[in-house]
Specification:
Layout (H helix, E strand, L loop, with lengths): L4 E6 L4 E7 L1 E6 L2 E5 L6 E5 L2 E7 L2 E15 L2 E11 L5 H17 L5 H20 L6
Parallel strand pairs: 1-8
Antiparallel strand pairs: 1-2, 3-4, 3-6, 5-7, 6-7, 7-8
Helix pairs in contact: 1-2
Length: 138
C-alpha cells in the first residue's frame, strides 16, 4: 500500500491545493473524517469546518465551507464553495463577521436564525484556523 495519496482542493474560483498527503482530516456532514492512504471509496457532503492534511511532517490548515469530497484509495478531491489557507485568512474581517453574527443572534426578533448561526460558525472556524496557523488569538 502507498504511503501517500493525492489531495486536490478546488473552489469555483481556483485550484487551492494539489499535493500529496500522508493523512487528512475533513469535516463531513456527519462529523470529521480521518483519511489515510488506501481509504475505502466514499462521497460525502462537506460541513463548515477545518481541513488539515499532513505531508512530510508538516500540517497545512484550511477553513472550508460547504461542498463535496470524493475519497478514493489513492486520491481525495474536495470541491468546496469556499476554502482559505490559514495564512490567507483576514483575521480582522473574520472577527467583524463573528461579532456581527453574534450580535444578530443576541438581538433575536425578526432575524433568520439559521443564517446567523451559519455565519457565526463560519467566522468561528476561520478564526480558529487562523489561530492554529499562528496568525491570531481568539
Amino acid at each position: 500500500m502507498a504511503d501517500t495519496f493525492q489531495l486536490e482542493i478546488v473552489t469555483p474560483e481556483r485550484l487551492v491545493v494539489r499535493d500529496t498527503a500522508e493523512e487528512a482530516q475533513i469535516p463531513g456532514k456527519a462529523g470529521y473524517m480521518g483519511i489515510l492512504p488506501g481509504h475505502a471509496p466514499l462521497i460525502s457532503e462537506l460541513a463548515v469546518g477545518e481541513i488539515t492534511y499532513t505531508h512530510g511532517g508538516a500540517t497545512t490548515r484550511f477553513a472550508v465551507a460547504w461542498g463535496f469530497v470524493e475519497v478514493l484509495p489513492d486520491k481525495v478531491t474536495i470541491l468546496a464553495e469556499t476554502c482559505e489557507r490559514a495564512e490567507d485568512i483576514d483575521v480582522s474581517r473574520a472577527q467583524a463577521a463573528y461579532d456581527r453574527a453574534a450580535e444578530r443572534m443576541k438581538e433575536g426578533g425578526e432575524i433568520d436564525y439559521d443564517r446567523a448561526l451559519i455565519a457565526l460558525q463560519r467566522a468561528e472556524v476561520r478564526l480558529e484556523v487562523a489561530k492554529k496557523g499562528g496568525l491570531a488569538a481568539h
